[in-house]
User: Which sequence fits this backbone?
């Protein structure tokens, strides 16, 4: 960005009308100074419609290289594998239209650089406090005289996805490597990594189960003793406690960690693996776990909104424990939620599948930027 001979561009398929202000604030917060910021408009300069993000970006870059006709080099940073291939094909076609002997529009030297999408996991309490703070501010506005007619207040509701021997994030990043699932392989094959627990049960722990596993917070060390794959769709690691006499309990017949899966596969399919390739003792990876529950917080309409829906005769689709606002002395209640079209959810990708088999997880994605 500091080079005077380089034009830096932030190019995104986000809609101009909805995201221009937000992206400007994001860029400013990081101290970035782009020469151009391009967002997808409702229509192009010639009143054309863009059917996809890639159509828009290609049209934008075509105009860009026509404007800066003496440009010699272009670098594009892209986090979607399909878009990486599409940009390479597009730039190759663009070069074929330029005259190699011309000094006005020489062929471009280009490089499309794949970017691995990163993610950051907050401490659960920190994350909950941040979300609850936003909801409190929103609900205060909804209750004010300045609220838009029809505005709805929201509360957080808590439900348990599954219970398991939960794995530390640092170990979750290491575990796929035992099956040679490197970041490059994961990106190329478009896999979804998991490696976050040894499943106990796909529900909350009962008092009986808590007694069997030593209670919430109990620590257990494990080692990876085998690897298995189901139909080239689900990768899992067979594990044993360390020492082998350690007390543990799981519903599945074989304790295992689901390492990764394809988008069309279920983590529960790891329970169908019957052949496990043993790992030599000197290569067996060990990791620590703690008995816990993977909790999902959902957005639900506030009590006032539910009363309005109840007055219209809307039936309650299900019941969950209500998560009270932080800083109050209120205890969770068992009031159900009522809304016409089902609850809007803040759900991670992955989840719990099948009785006593499978696992859950979270993943993410993003946009592209480039320089010419």
Assistant:
């Amino acid at each position: 960005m500091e080079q005077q001979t380089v034009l830096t561009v932030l190019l995104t398929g986000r809609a101009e009308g909805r995201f221009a202000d937000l992206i400007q604030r994001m860029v400013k917060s990081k101290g970035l100074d782009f020469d151009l910021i391009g967002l997808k408009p409702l229509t192009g300069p010639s009143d054309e419609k863009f059917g996809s993000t890639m159509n828009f970006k290609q049209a934008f870059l075509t105009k860009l290289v026509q404007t800066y006709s003496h440009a010699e080099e272009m670098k594009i940073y892209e986090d979607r594998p399909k878009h990486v291939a599409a940009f390479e094909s597009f730039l190759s076609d663009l070069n074929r239209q330029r005259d190699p002997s011309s000094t006005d529009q020489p062929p471009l030297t280009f490089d499309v650089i794949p970017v691995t999408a990163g993610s950051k996991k907050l401490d659960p309490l920190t994350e909950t406090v941040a979300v609850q703070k936003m909801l409190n501010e929103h609900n205060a506005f909804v209750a004010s005289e300045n609220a838009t007619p029809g505005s709805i207040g929201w509360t957080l509701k808590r439900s348990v996805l599954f219970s398991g021997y939960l794995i530390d994030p640092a170990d979750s990043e290491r575990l796929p490597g035992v099956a040679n699932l490197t970041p490059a392989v994961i990106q190329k094959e478009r896999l979804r990594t998991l490696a976050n627990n040894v499943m106990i049960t796909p529900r909350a722990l009962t008092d009986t189960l808590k007694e069997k596993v030593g209670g919430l917070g109990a620590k257990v060390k494990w080692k990876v003793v085998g690897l298995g794959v189901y139909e080239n769709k689900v990768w899992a690691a067979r594990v044993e406690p360390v020492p082998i006499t350690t007390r543990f309990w799981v519903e599945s017949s074989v304790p295992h960690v689901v390492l990764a899966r394809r988008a069309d596969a279920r983590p529960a399919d790891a329970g169908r693996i019957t052949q496990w390739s043993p790992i030599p003792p000197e290569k067996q990876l060990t990791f620590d776990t703690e008995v816990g529950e993977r909790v999902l917080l959902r957005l639900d309409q506030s009590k006032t909104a539910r009363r309005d829906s109840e007055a219209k005769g809307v039936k309650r689709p299900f019941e969950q424990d209500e998560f009270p606002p932080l800083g109050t002395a209120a205890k969770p209640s068992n009031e159900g939620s009522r809304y016409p079209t089902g609850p809007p959810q803040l759900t991670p990708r992955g989840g719990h599948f099948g009785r006593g088999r499978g696992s859950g997880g979270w993943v993410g994605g993003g946009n592209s930027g480039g320089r010419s």
The two ends are 11 Å apart (CA to CA). The CA atoms of residues 131 and 137 lie 10 Å apart. Helices lie at 16-29, 53-67, 81-96, 124-142, 169-174, 183-189, 207-213, 303-311. The chain is about 25% helix and 25% strand.
